[in-house]
Amino acid sequence: MTGELVQIADELYALSPGDFTPARDAKAKELKGSELSGQVKKLKKPSVAAWVLNQLVRHETEQVEQVLAMGEALRAAQAGLKGDELRALTRQRRQLTAAVTTRARSVASGLGVKVTQAVADQVEATLTAAMVDEECAKAVRSGLLVSALASTGLGEADVAGAVATPEALGFAASPRVVEPEEPPELHVVPDPEADQKARRQAEKDLEGAEQRLAEASAALGAAGQEVSDLEARSMQLQAEIDELRGKVAELEARFEEVDEELGDAEDVRAEAESTAAAATKDRDAAAAALARLG
Q1: What is d(CA 55, CA 53) in angstroms, rounded to the nearest whole number?
Q2: Closest alpha carbon to 145 in 135, 155, 153
Q3: Chain centroid to CA 228: how far?
Q4: What is the pLDDT along the chain (294 residues), one digit of tens a residue?
Q5: What are the CB-based long-range contacts (under 8 Å, 24+) for 121-126?
Q6: What angle do CA 187, 190, 196 make, to 5 degrees?
Q7: Are the C-beta atoms of 6 and 144 separated by less than 8 Å?
Q8: DSSP assignment string, 200-228
Q9: Do the beta carbons of residue 104 and residue 53 sit within 8 Å?
């Protein structure tokens, strides 16, 4: 029965957000009287971010598999990497998840759903989690997400509540291939509103392009600010290093002066010891002569 539930979930989570609940309830009603009916009824409607990821897995299966395979390879290689290599790895991971997130937004748009930046951030965070955490990767591959994921990679993430059913973690979503429809017989009919429609479409395209430009500009500004902050920090640290080097050079010079003075003082002490020894000898001789005369 568990396998049948997963198969039903696979079909339901491939639907559009507006169709999910009616289709789920209809399926539960169809199965009324069975244990499976109650299990189907309990299937949660996915969040927008989870829905986008579920569609990405189905419509861009090969690309998602490549991302998850790269994540597995990077996790295996990460243990032996040094600081600079880890930073380069992080940049590579960010570039990849950003590119796939852009593709996910395109898939959602093609299915009639506009993805906001907030939802896109959740999608990218989930892709990052899938690259750094094996259990998160299984959850994404299932195509049965009900909520977005997040993971630092420092410990196992709790993904049980993020999927429709625990058995989803061993399941892979069925790819969806859009079959081309049979072309209808076309008749050229003049459209009296063609110019207005074209203008409205052009305005809509312009609005979409301006929005994407604004988002890209914001991302560029944030990246530029991060670079500026790191450059300033780098200059500060270099100045501190130069100052410490100057202090070390000054202390070394003072050490050489004191060491030279110490050598001179030791010579003076040795000469004084020699003089004191000679005077002691003369005194002892004089004392002995006096004793003989007495």
Answers
A1: 5
A2: 135
A3: 20
A4: 468 999 999 999 999 999 999 999 999 999 998 999 999 999 999 999 999 999 999 999 998 998 898 888 888 777 666 677 777 777 888 888 999 999 999 999 999 999 999 999 999 999 999 998 889 999 999 999 999 998 766 656 678 889 999 988 889 998 986 554 454 454 444 566 777 888 889 888 988 888 888 888 888 888 888 887 888 888 888 888 888 888 888 888 888 888 888 888 888 898 889 899 999 999 999 999 999 997
A5: 122/47, 122/49, 122/148, 123/49, 123/52, 123/53, 123/56, 123/148, 124/97, 124/98, 125/149, 125/150, 126/49, 126/50, 126/53, 126/150
A6: 130
A7: yes
A8: HHHHHHHHHHHHHHHHHHHHHHHHHHHHH
A9: yes
Q: Where are the alpha helices (DSSP H) in 60-167?
A: 61-78, 83-110, 117-132, 134-142
Q: Which residues contact 90 (CB under 8 A, 6 or more apart)?
A: none
Length of the chain: 294
Structure tokens at 279: 């005077």
Measured CA angle at 173 (ends 177, 18), to 5 deg: 75
Distances (CA, A) of 12 to 107, 172, 176, 203: 18, 14, 13, 35
Q: pTM of the prediction?
A: 0.58
